[in-house]
Design a protein that fits this description.
Number of helices: 13
Strand order of the largest sheet: 1-2-3
Order of helices and strands: HHHEEHEHHHHHHHHH
Structural class: mainly alpha
Radius of gyration: 43 Å
Distance between the termini: 137 Å
Length: 324
């Protein structure tokens, strides 16, 4: 009887669970379509109404991405305002115009994602969502007042690495990981992440620019010059292009100087090799002829007793004692 009841309960729950899953899929598709149409407020309201307690990871992740990327205003990434835009309105301009928008939506991104991550530790999409959040916080410098960059970069590395290890990553997440490693001074790991970014999107100018910086730190100047050249060619924003051009010019000067120093060292080494070594002066061998004996000097004659010997003046004695 008990087994029958369990089977009966399961037969009732499975269709409900399937309907829930189907309902979630439909809501996510609809929200994604609204985002493509730039109906950001409508998309966020749809997600909030479907999952008001933020218990569904997929729904919370889409809502957090919407909150981080498409808000018109925010307060420490806890309260948000959104707008529905026309397809011709750029997002950046609407943020300037929306300074008075009401922060009507309470959605504490970090708290929600961290709670879900604790409940679903094997959901590595949540790792990517958390890492994206920490990157946005670091970039804007406008949230997490109790955390410094020194706290944020290790968190970004931790969660991006976990997400990438399980196949959840894109060119932007690899770029953010490379940036975090670079700011931590781990230039080898940083260059690997930027290289992966470029493999996914070869014309991403920021990745080329920062990869050039990594190569400079790794003393790989020809590689750095190549990446700087690509950055100059790819940047369209004047300030970025100017920064890349400045880097490239400095690299050209350093490489030219190093080549000149290497050529001079090579020439000096070749000259030293071709010059015969000076032979040391040999000491003359002692003569084998017998040294003649010197005859003894004659003894001075004694003064006659009849001549008095007067003492010499002191000065005369001293002057006589001075060397010539």
């Amino acid at each position: 009887m008990m087994r029958f009841r369990v089977l009966l309960l399961l037969s009732w729950l499975l269709p409900v669970a399937g309907a829930w899953a189907q309902g979630e899929s439909i809501v996510l598709q609809r929200a994604n379509q609204l985002i493509l149409e730039r109906k950001y407020e409508s998309a966020f309201v749809l997600l909030q109404n479907f999952d008001p307690e933020h218990k569904r990871p997929a729904v919370a992740l889409m809502a957090s991405e919407l909150a981080l990327q498409y808000h018109s205003r925010h307060l420490n990434y806890r309260r948000f305002a959104f707008r529905n835009l026309s397809l011709t309105q750029p997002l950046d301009s609407i943020r300037v115009l929306a300074r008075t928008d009401t922060l009507a939506f309470f959605f504490p991104v970090r708290t929600i994602l961290e709670g879900l991550h604790k409940k679903y530790p094997d959901n590595y999409k949540l790792d990517k969502g958390l890492a994206d959040y920490y990157f946005e916080v670091q970039q804007c410098g406008c949230a997490e007042p109790g955390r410094t960059e020194d706290n944020l970069f290790p968190l970004m590395v931790q969660h991006y690495e976990a997400a990438h290890k399980h196949g959840y990553g894109d060119y932007l997440s690899y770029y953010a990981l490379g940036y975090a490693y670079m700011r931590l001074g781990q230039f080898k790991a940083s260059s690997g992440a930027f290289e992966h970014t470029i493999s996914l999107r070869k014309n991403y100018a920021l990745a080329h620019f920062n990869l050039a910086y990594d190569y400079i730190e790794l003393h790989q100047l020809p590689k750095a010059r190549h990446e700087a050249q690509l950055a100059v060619a790819l940047f369209t924003e004047p300030q970025f292009k100017s920064d890349a051009q400045y880097m490239l010019e400095n690299l050209e000067r350093r490489i030219t100087k190093l080549k000149a120093e290497a050529a001079a060292a090579k020439a000096a080494a070749a000259k030293k090799k071709s010059t015969p070594k000076a032979t040391a002066a040999r000491k003359p061998k002692p003569s084998k002829k017998p040294i003649p004996k010197i005859a003894p000097m004659p003894r001075p004659a004694a003064l006659p007793d009849s001549l008095p010997v007067a003492p010499a003046p002191i000065d005369t004695l001293r002057s006589a004692a001075r060397p010539e």
